[in-house]
Specification:
Blueprint lengths: L1 H50 L4 E5 L12 E3 L3 E4 L4 E3 L12 H37 L2 H43 L4 H4 L3 E5 L1 H38 L1
Helix pairs in contact: 1-2, 1-5, 2-3, 3-5
């Protein structure tokens, strides 16, 4: 009788262990698919955002008395495009100026910063994707932890780049208004009448990429925890 009970108990433990391993495999498989899809979408969004020219949009109404409608434009990280002419490279607008003011130097530094941060984030995503695939195939939870940390750092880099671009655009807008006021007799409200200035969908894609990077990093942490938890459970059963 005791022997039969022992056999049944051992059988129950083995079946429970198989169920736990199956659940772990299924959860890891779902997490892997989620990370691949989300990571790919995040990478594509950031790549498209960097390569397109709709970060900053200026629409001038035909009824404007201070500007012509041909001055409507949409700007990217690398060039500015007018709606009635071809795109041209976005160069330093203060290059011809003699002595730069502190605000102008601040704008130049902000531009250099986001031009460094956003491509760096793309490079981090490429490295993270390679490490993540290796970690999932090898079921190495430590490598997944490193990958998740790297991806979180990439998300912080993207956030820093986006915030720097917003600060750059705000500082550029204030400097442009200041220069226009110095050349015009009208007030700032009348000066910018019928002019619509807003951020474009390229910046929105960069923000979506930031969300995707963060969620992918969280999913990697969850996968690393599942692998570590499953390994600890098997070691306990072995003892």
């Amino acid at each position: 009788m005791a022997y039969t009970t022992e056999v049944l108990t051992e059988s129950h433990v083995k079946s429970r262990s198989r169920g736990q391993r199956l659940a772990t495999r299924l959860s890891l498989r779902c997490l892997s698919r989620f990370m691949v899809v989300l990571g790919l979408l995040s990478f594509v969004c950031l790549l498209v955002a960097i390569g397109t020219d709709y970060w900053y949009i200026i629409n001038v109404s035909e009824h404007s008395h201070n500007f012509s409608a041909s001055q409507s434009s949409h700007t990217g990280l690398w060039r500015v495009c007018h709606y009635e002419s071809q795109c041209r490279p976005l160069v330093n607008p203060f290059k011809s100026a003699g002595n730069l003011t502190l605000s102008q130097m601040h704008i130049i530094n902000l531009r250099a910063a986001f031009l460094l941060l956003l491509p760096l984030s793309v490079m981090i995503m490429v490295v993270s994707s390679v490490l993540g695939v290796i970690g999932l195939l090898a079921r190495a939870h430590r490598l997944l932890l490193v990958t998740a940390s790297l991806l979180m750092f990439g998300a912080m880099t993207t956030l820093s780049g986006v915030c720097t671009y917003v600060a750059y655009s705000t500082a550029g807008y204030r400097e442009a208004v200041r220069l226009l006021l110095a050349q015009s007799q009208g007030g700032s409200k009348a000066l910018l009448e019928h002019v619509d200035i807003r951020f474009g969908w390229s910046l929105a894609l960069a923000c979506l990429s930031l969300v995707g990077e963060t969620l992918t990093g969280i999913a990697l942490l969850a996968a690393a925890w599942r692998l570590s938890h499953g390994r600890a459970g098997r070691e306990d059963q072995g003892l």
